[in-house]
Specification:
By secondary structure, this protein is an alpha/beta fold. It contains six helices and eleven strands. Helix content is 25%, strand content 24%. It is globular.
C-alpha cells in the first residue's frame, strides 16, 4: 500500500494551500490510500478553554467548516479519519453535563455531511502500521515513546510541533514512530493561545510506502 497521511487541520482554521499541497505530495509518491490523522475539525467555540470573542461562535464555525470541507471531499473521495480530541469536543461536552452523546448527538460524519467514501474510526492498522491521533503523544519524544510502549510501528498527529520519524530497538525488534505535523493556519485567532510558545506548528504530512515511513515538509517561505 502507498498511504498518504494528512496532519491535523482544525477546520475552518487550516492553511488555504495545505489541501492542494497534500494532494500534490501524495500524487508524487503515487499514493493509493489516504488517512487523516485526526482533529479535522477544531470546534473552537465549544472548547473547554476560553474562546476568542472575535471568532464566529459555534454556529458560524459549523457553517464555515462545512463550506471548507467541500473541496476536501472532491480532492479525497475516499478518506479514513482517526478521530481526534477536537473532533470529540461536542461529545465530551455532552458527557460533562451527564448526557449520553450516543443518544443525543449525531455522528461527526453526519453533522458535517461527509460523503460515503469517508469514515471516522478510533484507529486503523494498515500493512502492520498503527494509525491513530495520538492523544498522549505529547512532548518532543511523544511519538517515539508511543511506538516503543505499543511495540509496533505507529503514525500519529496531535502535537502540532512534532514532525519526523524516530525509532527504538531491543535485542529482538525495531519499531518506529512517525509524527506527521499539521496543516493549521497559525495566524488564526483560534491558535492565539500559542503566541508565546517557543515551539511552533510544523506544516507537514506523512507518506508510508509498503510500511516504510517518510515525512514531507511544506515550504511556507521565509517569515
Amino acid at each position: 500500500m502507498r498511504i498518504g497521511i494528512i496532519g491535523d487541520t482544525h477546520l475552518p482554521y487550516e492553511l488555504a494551500d495545505y489541501r492542494q499541497w497534500c494532494k500534490d505530495t501524495f500524487d508524487a509518491w503515487e499514493c493509493d490510500t489516504y488517512v487523516h490523522i485526526g482533529d479535522i475539525i477544531d470546534h473552537h467555540a465549544l472548547s473547554f478553554h476560553e474562546s476568542e470573542p472575535t471568532l464566529r461562535g459555534a454556529n458560524g464555525e459549523l457553517m464555515d467548516a462545512r463550506e471548507r470541507l467541500r473541496p476536501w471531499f472532491e480532492t479525497f473521495p475516499k478518506l479514513t479519519i482517526t478521530g481526534g480530541n477536537h473532533d470529540l469536543i461536542p461529545a465530551r461536552q455532552l458527557r460533562k453535563i451527564g448526557m449520553d452523546p450516543d443518544i443525543w448527538l449525531r455522528p461527526l460524519k453526519d453533522v458535517y455531511d461527509m460523503p460515503e467514501g469517508w469514515e471516522v474510526v478510533d484507529q486503523i492498522e494498515l500493512d502492520g502500521v498503527l494509525y491513530h491521533h495520538g492523544y498522549t503523544a505529547n512532548g518532543v519524544n511523544g511519538f517515539r515513546n508511543d511506538s516503543r510502549k505499543r511495540m509496533c510501528n505507529t503514525v500519529s498527529g496531535h502535537c502540532h510541533s512534532n514532525a519526523g520519524i524516530s525509532a527504538s530497538a531491543s535485542d529482538h525488534r525495531l519499531v518506529w514512530g512517525m509524527a506527521v505535523g499539521c496543516g493549521v493556519d497559525n495566524s488564526s485567532m483560534a491558535f492565539a493561545y500559542g503566541k508565546h510558545f517557543l515551539s511552533k506548528p510544523i506544516v507537514a504530512c506523512g507518506v508510508v510506502i509498503d510500511g516504510e515511513p517518510h515525512v514531507e515538509f511544506m515550504d511556507l517561505g521565509e517569515k
